[in-house]
Amino acid sequence: MSANAAPASAPHFASQALHRARVEPAYGAYLMLWVGFILIPLIFGLDKFFNVLTNWEAYLAPWMVSVSPFSAHTMMLVIGVVEVGAGVMVALSPRIAAYVVALWLAGIIINLLSYPGFFDVALRDVGLLVAAVALARLAKTYAPAHARRVKN
């Protein structure tokens, strides 16, 4: 195997990505959104198990609990697993996973708009939904080739 065929080390890749982000603003936007949509779902998803950041059950519309076979706590644990999965999916395949995250955010927005008290949070999540769609669009150009392939 030639020296040129060896994979780049992580520090080398990171420095190349940061340099490219400085000189190519659209790539920089892609990189910020990609990292953000990996970390945010991972952090929020894991926190559903610990409630360090907030009591997540308070954000669940009462009608959602009444139609669910699960308690509010169990629903939050399931949601946490889904959110961690979303973060992993964005890491591996941002082009597709960003649309999945956008749909997930649409569900969260519907939940938050369905009862008073969290309209401000719903508006913030609309912004996140727009950012997720922007990530999906940018990933068509900037995601690594293996992450851009879509099988028919």
Account of the 3D structure:
With 152 residues, the chain is mainly α. It has one domain (37-146). The protein is built from seven helices and no strands. Helix 1 (10-23) packs across helix 2, helix 2 (25-47) crosses helix 6 and helix 5 runs antiparallel to helix 6. The longest helix is centred in the last third of the chain and has 24 residues, at 119-142. The chain starts with 9 loop residues before the first helix and ends with a helix. Mean pLDDT is 91; it is low at 1-6.
Features:
mainly alpha; 74% helix; elongated
Overall pLDDT confidence: 91
What integer value in Å does the Rg equal?
Answer: 18 Å
Structural class: mainly alpha
Report the end-to-end length measured between terminal Cα atoms: 33 Å
Largest sheet: none
* Residues in β-strands, percent: under 5%
Percent helix among the residues? over 70%
Report the count of strand segments. Answer: 0
Could you list the spans in which at least 5 consecutive residues all have pLDDT below 50?
1-6
Total separate domains: 1
N-to-C SSE string, H for helix and E for strand? HHHHHHH
Shape: elongated
Number of helices: 7
Task: Please describe the topology of this protein.
Layout: H1 10-23, H2 25-47, H3 62-67, H4 72-92, H5 94-113, H6 119-142, H7 145-148
Brief characterization of the structure:
With 152 residues, this protein is mostly helical. It has seven helices and no strands.
